[in-house]
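Hi everyone, sorry if this is the wrong subforum. Our group has a chain we'd like a structural model of before ordering constructs, and none of us has done structure prediction before. Sequence below.
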Amino acid sequence: MAKSIRIALIAALAIAGVAAAQPFPNRPLRFVVPYPAGGATDIISRSIGAKLTAAWGQQILIDNRAGGGQQIGTSIVAKAPPDGHTILLVSITHAINPGLFKKMPYDAIKDFAPITMAAASPLVVVVHPSVPVKSVGDLVALMKSRPGRLNTATSGIGSGGHLAAELFKSMAGVDMTFVPYKGGALAYIDLIAGQVDLMFTSPTPTLGYAKAGKLRVLAMTGAKRSPATPEIPTVAETRGLPGYEANLWYGVVAPAGTPRDIVRLLSTEIGKALQFADVREPLAAQAVETLTSTPEEFAAYITAEIAKWTKVIEKANIRAE
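Answer:
Right subforum, don't worry. Here is the predicted structure as tokens:
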């Protein structure tokens, strides 16, 4: 009996040794994107997928799982085997949701292993041409003279643009009326028509509308001016608003428990993928800058963003509908 146990144990160890020695990746990877196809998330995920496929000879399967405020796709990855063969594209929504929802099917920090930052884009502060302002300073003055009378469109309660406006409202000491829409397209229609006064939103397609004279861009919300539009000032340059910053960002995570060596390999290879001109340039055309980070840096960034936006949400008493 003892001999048979020893044989079984030796066999088990041998099998474990073979498994441990298997190279990574040893089968196709699943890259879950909790957004519908199209836009910056599509460019980022498919570009990374194509470069990793070329580097490793293993197919990267893009799996768009939209819905539930990105919680459907995120939940899938939270429950996936932590072997590096399932990864997730996350965005600022990953940091907003913990403050916005009382209950979620996962923990945004504990259930994931951050891999790397991938890209970021500032928002733009844009007004209808009928609004008599030409700078953020003018906007603050107008809001203080007309408390609550300027209507601000948002692409939904708790969206990145909504919270960027709430942060602005708090730091500038002004009031405004929020008008939520079911998506940015409907908000643009009313903004261009002058039914609402302003919006904190993505540079694309806003900059195109501004060039056509349909909208007026006042500033961008990044910490520094965007390389794509260096002529546009930041909100933080406005007197009384130093330190203001709100970015739409994207990164990649894996399930918690993914081996550190695999996380580091993924971080390195994704970082290399993001440096290719045919990845950077299509994103730059949408005012999205590719970025890289270590897993530790990205983990710290996610934690800081959750704390920041939870504070904004609680102060404004925002709850998901």
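For your construct planning: The first strand starts at residue 29 and ends at 33. The longest helix spans residues 295-316.
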